[in-house]
Each structure stands twice: as C-alpha cells, then as structure tokens.
Write a structure and sequence with these properties.
By secondary structure, this protein is of the alpha+beta class. 20% of the residues lie in helices and 38% in strands. Helix 8 packs across helix 9. One of its GO terms (cellular component) is ribosome.
Length: 566
C-alpha cells in the first residue's frame, strides 16, 4: 500500500516534469524559419560561433557580416540577429544564417518604404545583363541600365560600392524581385534645382553659360544647374550650317533668355539677340536697283540665296538668274560659295526678305541684238529646233530667232519647205523684227532673195493689160504664166461671148492678152480675165468712135476702131 502510494507519487511528479519541460520548450524554443537574437562567443576559421540561447550554438561565415566591398564588421561579444533554419543538424549545432536574417529584415523595411513611396539606401555591387545589382541592406535589387542616370553612363566604376539613395519601382516578395531606379532620384533633385535656378531667371536676362553638348539643331548650355537650348537659328544673324562652326564644348558664352516654360522648365536661349540686328539698316545700305557683290550660301530648286553681309541674305529666284537659260536648275548657273554680282529688286523688312536679280546686272541680250542687228540685217546660225510652226536659229549671246513657216520660201508651202531642214544645219536669214519685251526675234530665209512676185508686179496694177502664156488646159479654165508667176483664168473669164468660153480653143504655148482684175500681194496671186479685157476694149472704142445714139452699129464702131489701130 505504502509502496503503491510512493509509486503513484513518483509517476505524478514525472508527468508534471514532462509537462513542465514540454511547456518550457514550447515557450522558449524558437520556431524554425524565424529570426532570433544571438551572441558571438568566438571567431575561428573564418566563422563566427553564435550562441542563440536554449543551449543552442551555430556557425555563420564572416563574409555574411560584411557589406559588398567592405571587411566584416563583427567581434566577440556582439549581439546579432540570425535566421534559424534548423534547430539541430548532424553535428548537433543550430543551422543559422546572417544573410537570411538581413534579407527578412530588409524586405520588411523595403515593403514599408515602397508602400510609403520613400527612398531607400543601397550600394551598387555587381554588373549583370541589362544593368546592375544593388544591395539594399540585405536584399538584392536590379538596377536597369536606363535607370542609372539621366544620360547614358559609359563608365559605372565610380558608382560601384557607393552608398546612395534609390527609388523602388517594383517589388515582388514571393518571387524575390526588386527593381530600383537611381535616375528617378536624380531627376527629382534636378527638378528641384531647376525650379530654384529658373525662379531666379526672367525672359530677357543676359547670363553666362557653359556649352555642354552640341547637336545638329543647336547646343545645350548649362546655366548653373539647369540647361537651356540655344537653337542654331538663334546663334547668329547670318546663316549657320552647323553649331560647331561658332561653338565648342566647354566654352563659356553669353546668352539671352528668350523664353521660359514654367511647366516643362524648358529654357530657350539666344546669342544673336545680344547683337545689333543688321535688318534695321538694310534699306539704307541696300537701296532698290543698287548692285552689290555677295556670296552664294544655299541653292534650291527655286533659286539661290546670296549673303549680302553677315545676317542679311537675299533670294535670287530662278526666273531672275539668266536672260536666256529658262527651266534650268539654279545649280547649273551658280555654285555654293561663289561670289556674284546682284541687283536689289525688292525689300520686305517685315518679312525680312530681299529679292535679288542676277540677270539684271547684265544687259538684256535682246536689246543688245536689236542695237547691233537692225531690221534687214543678214545673220547666220545653227538650226536648234524644228517645230510645227517654224525653225529656231541659234544667234549670239545664247538667244534664238524664229523663222516662221511662211518665211521659209516664196514658192513652196511652209509645210513642204520645212522638210528641207535638219537640226544642226547652218542657215542664213534676214532680221525682220525684234521684240525686246516679249524676247522674240523674227527671221526670214526667203527674204534673202528678192520677192519674185513684187519684181514681176513692178508697174503692174489693177486694170493693166499684160500678155501671158498658156501653160495648161483644164475643164474649169486655163493656167497661164506671167514672168514666172502662175495664175488661173476661169472658164467664165475666157470670153465676153458665152459661146467662146471654151478652154479647148486654146493651146499650150499660146500668147494671150489679159486684163489684171486683182493684185493680192498677201496671197501672191493675180486675178486675170480675157472677158474683162474685151469689155474694156469695147467701152474704149465706143468712147472714141461713136455711140449707140448716132445710129452706127457695134460692128461699124469696132471696124473703125480696128482700122484706126492699123
């Protein structure tokens, strides 16, 4: 009985001890996968031996206590936080990690900073594809190359290992991904600095700046923390083909603030605005119709720009470049940098435009030709072109004269006569007209010879009696010739007597007296009639030898007239 009681008491105390032990283990023994505090009790073989309590010790590599690029910062007696992976390993030691403890601590801190949109401190310690790795106090983040600086960075060496602020752009704890930006910090700082500098500037201010960068369209000038754009058109009053002509990187220049955009913080600068505007004195220096020497600065399809003085350019339109070269590209007449003489034709100071003429400095070649080649002058030239209405003949000073179809031949129709000519033929002609306003010269090839019609008609007029020779017999009449000129007498004009109006009563070679009824110098034709001659002769006989009132017959009168003629 007594033994039983003792045995029961013993069992009860064992159960209580086991319960107390379990309770103590549950309360005091940390869970695996949590961060615990420990104390460094020794450092040996590149490891720190850490007592984490609960009669547990573990080992941690010394490099886990070092920041990237720095020596380990740990000593015996230091209290540190470590991550408990396992309570006991095969050697009976706790498996602990300082890196994992720092990572857990860092993620908690970084998530809070990300939620509050706060900056975090870190150091770039490695280079990877597309960017860099950054230590954020235990957590490793990715820094894309585009987020390192506001401008591309050629050498990131000076930034390695340097503690500096970063902005978290994105983070995913489950995947262990963090993306940060250094550029966002710089832009924010830059914006604050720009705002401060811009607040001190006003449009119209003249300030000193340093040329930081040169592009094709201008240069960026540092005004002490803020950049302004100096456009190429605002560098000088004259034409500047490239900013490098007058600026170099690092050069200090005086510029004027032209415009400030408060919203975008963009500043437009100018250099020429600090100089006198040459256009203020253009009208006085370059009066209308005055001639000046200038330099060709640019050539386009529609003309050429000529610099009269630095800052003042005028346009020579293609129509004002040459008297004779029409529809030719300006580059065929002048070349860039060529010195040329030009005349001022028009000035528009409001639009800052000067119209110039190149051909006006030379005499009008049509006026020169008219002076040296009055009407009737014989000229010689090459057939330049053949058209449906005539020939174009090349003359002096690159001008052409035209021979119309009607001026090719006295005898042939123009369409027939033009077939006798080919491009390149050398021909002679006579000047018949010069129109300087229309820039036309009329020539005549047939005028080289005397007008056979005019010569044949010398002394012949309407009503004249001439003798012609029959050259052809036709149904409608007869063809006759007078001094080389052909004419046609219709059947109705062959006789006063209707019965005698028969072409067949004539023979080729017959000589016939006819009366001239018409002389058309324009069509070069004679109107001839035998009938008109007979009527005229009858009228004249009546007047001389009698009248119808005297009772004499027509036969008597004609007989007397014929006898008188004999």
């Amino acid at each position: 009985m007594k033994e039983n009681r003792r045995h029961m008491a013993q069992n009860a105390s064992m159960e209580e001890f086991e319960a107390l032990l379990n309770e103590s283990l549950e309360i005091d023994t940390p869970n695996e996968g949590s961060v615990v505090k420990g104390k460094v009790i020794a450092i040996e073989a590149g490891q720190a031996i850490i007592d984490v309590g609960y009669k547990m010790e573990g080992r941690v590599e010394l490099k886990e206590f070092a920041n990237p690029g720095e020596a380990p910062d740990i000593a015996v007696g230091d209290e540190v936080e470590v991550f408990l992976d396992r309570v006991e390993n095969a050697r009976g030691e706790a498996v602990i990690s300082r890196d994992k403890a720092r990572r857990e601590e860092a993620w908690d801190r970084l998530e809070k900073a990300y939620a509050d949109d706060q900056r975090v401190e870190g150091a770039i310690f490695g280079r990877v594809k597309g960017g860099f790795t950054v230590d954020l106090g235990g957590a490793v983040a990715f820094l894309p190359g585009s987020q390192v600086d506001v401008r591309p960075v050629r050498d990131a060496g000076p930034l390695m290992g340097l503690k500096q602020p970063f902005q978290i752009l994105k983070m995913d704890r489950r995947r262990g991904n963090i993306v940060v930006s250094r550029r966002a910090i710089l832009e924010e700082s830059r914006a604050e600095q720009r705002a401060e500098v811009i607040g001190k500037l006003s449009e119209g201010d003249a300030v000193d700046g340093v040329v930081k960068n040169i592009t094709e369209y201008g240069a960026f000038v540092d005004l002490g923390g803020v950049d302004g754009l100096l456009h190429v058109t605002d560098m000088a009053w004259r034409r500047v083909n490239h900013p490098s002509e007058i600026l170099s990187i690092g050069e200090t220049v005086k510029v004027q603030v032209i415009k400030i955009n408060k919203e975008t913080h963009r500043i437009s600068l100018g250099m020429k605005q600090l100089q006198d505007d040459p256009w203020d004195s253009v009208e006085a220096k370059f009066p209308i119709e005055s001639v000046h020497t200038g330099r060709v600065t640019n050539i386009t399809d529609y003309g050429a720009f000529v610099e009269l003085e630095p800052g003042v350019e005028g346009l020579v339109h293609v129509s004002e470049m040459s008297w004779t070269k029409k529809n030719v590209h300006p580059g065929k007449i002048v070349s860039t940098s060529q010195e040329v003489e030009v005349m001022v034709l028009e000035i528009d100071t409001a639009k800052r435009r000067v119209s110039l003429g190149l051909k006006q400095t030379m005499r009008n070649p049509w006026e020169v030709f008219e002076e040296s080649h009055p009407m009737g002058t014989e000229v010689e030239g090459e057939v330049k072109n053949i058209t449906e209405f005539g020939l174009f003949i090349g003359l002096d000073n690159d001008i052409d004269g035209m021979v119309h179809l009607s001026d090719l031949s006295w005898d042939q129709r123009g369409e027939e006569a033009i077939q006798n000519y080919r491009k390149g033929d050398m021909v002679k002609a006579v000047v018949t007209e010069v129109d300087t306003d229309k820039e036309r010269i009329s020539l005549s090839i047939k005028a080289l010879e005397g007008d056979p019609f005019a010569e044949a008609m010398d002394g012949v007029k309407r009503g004249s009696i001439i003798t012609v020779e029959v050259t052809a017999i036709e149904d409608g009449g007869i063809e006759v010739e007078y001094d080389g000129l052909k004419s046609f007498i219709r059947r109705s004009d062959l006789s006063r007597d209707r019965a005698e109006q028969r072409p067949e009563r004539f023979q080729v070679g017959d000589k016939v007296d006819v009366r001239v009824t018409n002389v058309d110098a324009k069509t070069r034709r004679l109107g001839l009639s035998i009938k008109a001659r007979e009527i005229a002769e009858e009228k004249e006989a009546v007047q001389q030898y009698g009248s119808s009132d005297s009772g004499a017959s027509l036969g008597d009168i004609l007989g007397a007239a014929l006898k008188g003629d004999e």
